Amino acid sequence: MTSPSPPLGSEERSAHSGVPAPAARPAGRLAELPARVALVVVWSSGFLSGTLGLRYAAPYTFAALRFALAGLVLLAVAGIRRRRLPRGRRLLHLAVAGVLVQAVQFSSIYAGMDLGVPSGLAALIIALYPLTASLLAVPLLHERVSAGQLLGLVLGLGGVALAVAEGIELSLNSLPGLGFLALGLLGISAGTVYQKRFCGQMDPVSGNAVQLLAASLVVLVPALLVEGWDVHFTAVYWPVLLWSALVNSVIGVGLLYHLLQRHGTSQVSSLFQLVPMSTAGLGALLLGQRLGPLTLAGLVLATVGTLLTHRVRH
User: Distance between CA 148 and CA 134 in Å, rounded?
Assistant: First the structure.
């Protein structure tokens, strides 16, 4: 699913040779459109699987089971395909990125939703990730954020706010949950920047296995000590757990890293501005939830902002 990104400076060599490279870019963008659409849909489904999973398991217990199952599956695949596991400093970098992207982000989302934060508001907060990740990428990855890209981010966030504004009610009881969601936002923002900086050539099978297993060990501590391994295995819970582990963790994060290897952090993260609207669409399709006028207006605005952000070159 993932292949090494082209060597740095390849575009500069094309420029010096006098042969223009942009001719291949439109085809490349079109070829990656399915991956971008899949990333949005898969990530959106994670909020639905999380909502269902929390009915049968406590937040950290659910996260520990999700990460462990996904990590063991990938570890088995790596063994069958004879992929060598990373060692030394590379192993450490992968573990750090995995803890941030997987453990900190998803367990915090689950904890916040378990404390009463609606899934729409959770999606809205995590949708701030394009802005926070872009701001971190400027000093840490030396990526350029132009005025046009900032405008695209602002438009996208405005669309996100419109799309999930309907039906959201806040109270003081929501503050602890909102704190967990803020922690999850910090986790994915710092984690993807760390991933791009130190794990850009990660093997998608063995590397993701290491990250998921590291995340499972971290969240296992509060799952055992705080929650007492609170889980009820039922016929309904198993499909939810399998979806969250194999689709959300393996495929979703794999798609994220696949795109990060080829594009700037700001361009890839801007796709997350479509996640709240996609979540609302899936909710309407699968749960019969109504899409109001603000949601539809937000969808249009966020789409414009995302398209504008993707026009920026790095």
Answer: 13
